[in-house]
């Protein structure tokens, strides 16, 4: 156990009793998407500032949990795509149901027969019960989280077992002879039924969390990690190059890339991540510029509303969901020198305005408490507060009100500087309960008033202030939007 880990324990013990009620920090949440530049991780914020110790501990805890769940591979599923190639990615359109009423049915059909015999019909929003019999979608999400947290946990603990685990998972999914995935999504979100079965362009969304893999690979390259060999790196570059080619030439890639709403935004998260892995910085910039000069322009109104996201019923969710993708594009841009944070839409919106607008809504009032946990927005609040600053303390006040223990969340680790709930460090414990308007409701930015004397803003230059973007794991599953 490293010194860092030891030093975490007293604070953690103090926090444990208080956090039992809200307990958000040790409940795993799969963020929509995330990208953390290697410079942030290697600057080891927890050694400079005790503020981030709890978040570091959460990251290690999540890495431990996720590390036990892998590895993942498309070859592990019991069925194959119509190609019969076990290396092909496959997912089924989640809302399409079989209608066997018109099918001559003299004997009971096996499930495999149903898939190719009965016509499938759309029941928007209703999951067909067998959809996760083929769970490449869930597997990829699990892979990305496990790789992301294990890579960062390696730096936090100095224990190479975490890095080795992340590398093992990357190899199994992308590179090893027996288990690799073919670099295409020809069979993502396949609509089953008689005739030729193909996927559709919405399935490209399945790869959206590739920026979590990118986070790990950049860390391995920069740290560096000897277990991430030149051979593995070269194979990964090759995989990215071939996948980029698929994205650029296959109709699904092209269509998804010009989708106006969150699908289009996430397309760029995926495309740009692979371009960076492949070393094509100029191409990565060109794609980000394409996003910010096309789709982005129509995505945010002057008041911050996202008109293309609120035309459907789950408005709290979709505002947050697209924010996650926009913020990730902003972070990827910051990493490669494309500054998007101040770019305005045609009507004068910015990412910050979109967040400010979304913050005023409560999922309880939009009937989304069950389907869109409120936490979906919290990481975006932290990200925006970190990137744009929080001079009047409104982001800190929001977080302290809705989630008093937010400094224990992994997102707090990489969204510095960000203010703490009042007295967090003085008392070594968190404010009472979730209704925290009294103790944490008026914070100033940059750690002022948090009792540290060591303002995080001083420790982290603007160049290191990257953003977080997020969403719950289940939500990510439920949320896969089927149409624009
Ligand atoms: C962190 O806390 C420990 C124990 O209170 C203290 O000795 C150390 O100086 C602090 N480190 C920083 C960077 O503030
Ligand atoms: C086919 O018919 C059998 C026997 O009537 C019935 O049990 C089964 O549910 C039917 N299968 C389908 C797919 O309709
Ligand atoms: C699909 O994968 C996810 C992530 O690994 C997992 O949480 C979920 O339980 C899986 N679903 C099924 C039905 O196997
Ligand atoms: C994917 O599908 C297209 C047709 O839609 C086909 O031309 C291409 O060969 C397929 N790619 C792979 C790698 O199977
Ligand atoms: C990737 O590697 C394969 C096999 O070594 C090779 O045939 C192919 O040309 C490479 N692709 C790219 C884009 O470098
Ligand atoms: C936005 O532009 C202003 C004025 O140039 C600058 O002070 C600020 O730092 C920029 N904000 C971000 C997040 O880049
Ligand atoms: C929490 O609330 C209890 C009862 O209201 C109070 O005695 C205690 O001091 C509070 N603790 C903190 C840390 O605010
Ligand atoms: C929560 O805070 C509000 C004021 O912001 C207050 O009206 C309400 O009574 C508080 N609820 C509890 C349970 O303390």
Automatic annotation (TrEMBL):
Q: Does the keyword Phosphoprotein apply?
A: no
- Please provide the record's keywords in A-Z order: Lyase, Signal
Residues in Alginate lyase domain copies: 77-361
* UniProt signal peptide: 1-23
Residues annotated as coiled-coil are none
> Do the record's keywords include Signal?
yes
For molecular function, the Gene Ontology terms on record are: lyase activity
The protein's name = Chondroitin AC/alginate lyase
Query: Could you state one GO cellular component term attached to this entry?
Result: periplasmic space
What are the boundaries of the region Disordered? 431-454
Task: Give the domain of life.
Answer: Eukaryota
Pfam families per record: Alginate_lyase (PF05426)
Per the record, where are the segments of Gly residues compositional bias?
Answer: 438-452
């Amino acid at each position: 156990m490293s010194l860092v880990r030891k030093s975490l324990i007293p604070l953690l013990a103090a926090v444990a009793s208080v956090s039992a009620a809200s307990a958000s920090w040790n409940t795993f949440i799969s963020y929509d998407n995330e990208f953390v530049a290697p410079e942030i991780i290697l600057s080891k914020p927890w050694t400079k500032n005790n503020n981030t110790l709890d978040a570091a501990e959460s990251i290690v805890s999540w890495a431990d949990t996720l590390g036990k769940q892998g590895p993942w591979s498309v070859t592990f599923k019991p069925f194959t795509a119509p190609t019969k190639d076990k290396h092909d990615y496959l997912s089924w359109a989640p809302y399409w149901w079989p209608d066997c009423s018109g099918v001559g049915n003299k004997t009971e059909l096996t499930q495999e027969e149903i898939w190719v015999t009965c016509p499938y019909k759309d029941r928007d929003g209703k999951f067909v019960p067998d959809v996760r019999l083929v769970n490449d979608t869930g597997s990829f999400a699990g892979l990305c989280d496990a790789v992301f947290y294990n890579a960062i946990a390696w730096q936090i603990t100095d224990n190479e077992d975490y890095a080795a685990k992340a590398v093992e998972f990357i190899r199994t999914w992308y590179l090893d002879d027996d288990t690799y995935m073919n670099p295409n999504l020809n069979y993502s979100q396949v609509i089953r039924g008689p005739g030729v079965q193909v996927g559709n362009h919405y399935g490209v969304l399945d790869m959206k969390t590739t920026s979590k893999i990118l986070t790990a690979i950049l860390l391995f390259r920069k740290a560096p990690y000897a277990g991430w060999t030149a051979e593995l790196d070269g194979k990964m570059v090759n995989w990215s190059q071939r996948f980029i080619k698929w994205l650029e030439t296959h109709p699904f890639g092209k269509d998804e890339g010009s989708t106006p709403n969150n699908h289009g935004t996430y397309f760029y998260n995926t495309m740009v991540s692979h371009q960076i892995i492949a070393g094509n910085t100029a191409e990565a910039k060109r794609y980000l510029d394409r996003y910010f000069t096309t789709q982005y322009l129509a995505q945010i109104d002057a008041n911050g509303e996202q008109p293309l996201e609120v035309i459907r019923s789950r408005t709290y969710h979709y505002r947050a969901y697209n924010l996650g993708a926009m913020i990730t594009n902003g972070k990827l841009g910051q990493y490669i020198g494309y500054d998007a944070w101040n770019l305005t839409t045609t009507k004068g919106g910015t990412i910050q305005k979109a967040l400010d607008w979304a913050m005023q809504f409560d999922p309880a009032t939009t009937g989304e408490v069950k389907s869109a946990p409120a936490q979906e927005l919290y990481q975006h609040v932290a990200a925006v507060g970190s990137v744009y600053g929080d001079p009047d303390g409104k982001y800190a006040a929001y977080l302290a009100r809705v989630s008093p223990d937010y400094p224990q969340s992994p997102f707090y680790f990489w969204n510095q500087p960000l203010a703490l709930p009042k007295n967090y460090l003085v008392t070594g414990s968190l404010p009472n309960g979730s209704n925290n308007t009294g103790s944490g409701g008026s914070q100033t930015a940059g750690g002022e008033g948090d009792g540290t004397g060591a303002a995080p803003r001083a420790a982290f230059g603007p160049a290191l202030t990257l953003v977080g973007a997020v969403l719950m794991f289940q939500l990510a599953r439920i949320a896969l939007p089927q149409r624009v």
